[in-house]
Amino acid sequence: MEHPAEVFLGILSFACREPCLRGFARAADGACHPVASDPTCDSGSPTYDSSPDTDEPEVELPLVLGDPIETVDGELEPYVEWLDAVVIDKTRAIVAGVSGWAWYDLENHVRLAEHSSGRTYRVAVDRDTQRAFFATRADRIVVVDVSTDTPTPVDLPGWVTEGFHEDISADGGVVLLGALDEGLVVMDSDLNRLTSPVLLDADGSVYRSYDTSALGGYAPFPLQILVDRQGRIVYMARQYNADAVRDAIEAALAR
User: Residue 125's CB: how many other CB atoms inside 10 A?
Assistant: First the structure.
């Protein structure tokens, strides 16, 4: 014996669905198709392009098609999927994508060169060293010299971390890489890892070498000192206060 709910659902499946828009009718496959006349739905009942015997206004598609947006690669084949891009200056840009990386002329809106080096995921450019760094997520870091009109790959091993990495940033000769397993990886422009020096002050002798009495009994670090353009100390604090430091910097710059 069939369950009542199954019977009810079976009846609904044969009923006419919501009316199609004007100029369309529901076919046997259940979809609305453009037709010259109104056929019947799969249950045998007529399908209307608007509700019958009502004064409801005609339904129009809420879609306005404007002029297409032109892109640099709009006419290029095959299709290229770019994932990240950085503007070097007013005339140059470099992009990262599934098939490698490419170089663009922003003045003439043309692609100058494309290098199929494998998937590149993110790109960062250090304008101080004139190098671009491409993160590949699972492979090595790709380094490109962007100091000339023609970008040149830099021959570096590039294997800086095991496991996956996501994003990359570069500035002032320092490259930062977000690695999933290792956290933040800090490198120089040749991808040599940089480490922060750590002092193990087991007996406290280094701490006591600071004259804490002169500091009012506060711990000697962090001691924040702000010097203005004239070389004058305009702010000093023995405790961290981000708002106070920010206000002091803005006041010094406003002079």
Answer: 22
Per-residue pLDDT tens for 72-101? 665 544 556 888 999 988 889 999 988 889
With CA atoms as reference, report the closest residue to 103 among 117, 93, 91, 89: 93
For 9, the 3-state DSSP assignment is helix
Q: Are 100 and 113 in contact (CB under 8 A)?
A: no
Dist. CA 121–CA 134, nearest whole Å:
7
Pairing of strands 82-87, 183-188: unpaired
- β-partners of residue 135 are 122
Q: Residue 129 and residue 145: Cα distance in Å, rounded?
A: 9
> 12-49 burial, b for 16+ CB within 10 Å, e for fewer?
eeeeeeebbeeebbbbeeeebeeeeeeeebbeeeebbb
The Cα diameter of the chain in Å comes to: 96
Query: What 8-state DSSP symbol labels residue 30?
Result: S
In this predicted model, what pLDDT tens digit does every residue of 168-198 receive, in sequence order? 999 999 999 998 888 888 999 999 988 766 6
**CA torsion sign, 197 to 198 to 199 to 200?**
negative
